[in-house]
Structure of MFS family permease:
Amino acid sequence: MSNQLRIGSSIYINYILLGMINLIIALHMGFLTEQLNTDAAAISALISAIGIGKLIALSFAGKLSDNLGRRPMLITACFLYVVFLVAIPFAPTYTIAFMFALLAGMGNSILDTSSYPALIEVFRKRSSSATVLVKAFMSVGSTILPLMITFFMARDMFYGYTFFIMAGIFLFNALHLMTLKFPEANVLEEEPKEENKQGKKPVKKLIFKEKPKFLREGITVIAIGFTSVGLFLIIQTWLATYAEEVVGLPEAQAINLLSIYSFGGFATVIILATLLDRLFRPITALIIYPLIAIAALTTLLFVESYTILIIIAFILGMATSGLFQLAVTLMAQFFPEKKGTSTAFVTLSSSIGFITLPYVTGLINRHIGVSYVFMFEIIIAVIAVILAAFISYRYRKVFDLEIRKPVMWRNP
């Protein structure tokens, strides 16, 4: 196996495990409430602690990824997860468990700000496809975990074995990463390749017609990161409730819509991974997918047929998955000299979305009804289209797609 594939495989294995970690506290709530002598609300706060730890680490993870390199940061993330996974089943008090949950959140930020840039640098010609596949592997992890838990519960085995198996895989992956050689971080394209008259190597340059500005292109892509989270998080949170309360479906059928939604998301990730960088650019998907979501959400508000709702759920899954990964790729294209830092900014906006949007939509549901939650979702989708249309215009200006040989902007 080539070094390139070994790096990619290690990163994707980490994201399979991350897909499991995102659910592991919630799915072990009963065991943890008994172990830590607390209630379900307190265990839910452990999940929030992971989000807090993620926000704390975003203040430095991106810069460290750019300065120290991708490999040491990936290895650090693996070891942080090993500590978290081994410690939680033995945590004697809630306070100690909370501290280790913060550590897991920090590991999440370090993993994101090193993995996405690494994939972009390792798979330069298929960077969009490489980053979108992260979503697919996380879905694999979220599918495997319930099966593992069921296996151990059926045999009346200690719940911590699930944690230990994952910790063992993280440890093995960390050791494997130590043997790999990563590309140099943030290497910019060079032009020309020949030596100059003085026999010196050419100065590195960015292939831009005009220099991107963080306050213009950067802020726009960060906002897209926020809307991309809103598009799938709100549907994932409220679709079953809407189907029960407004359409009147039984609970089992309403929950089944979420399975259909997830399947649609997995399907679109595979499609994007296959076609991106070959038939269309990430920016095209960032415009078309929210438009499809607007049409599907509008239809959702006017239908009551279960069959049609299944189709809508599948379409919504296809139209709202993988957009965050595309935003990360786009940010790295605009600011390739600081991929880790730019990834941190997009991840920060998504984290804010995860914290604020459930609260806002909860208030909307409480005071005016769940139907208005999806009207709010349509507004987010419209904003996403406007942002994507603007960044598409700027993309053409910055990269000068109409000219075969772009004018060079010299990197100072």
User: Anything to note?
Assistant: DSSP finds 15 helices and two strands in the chain.
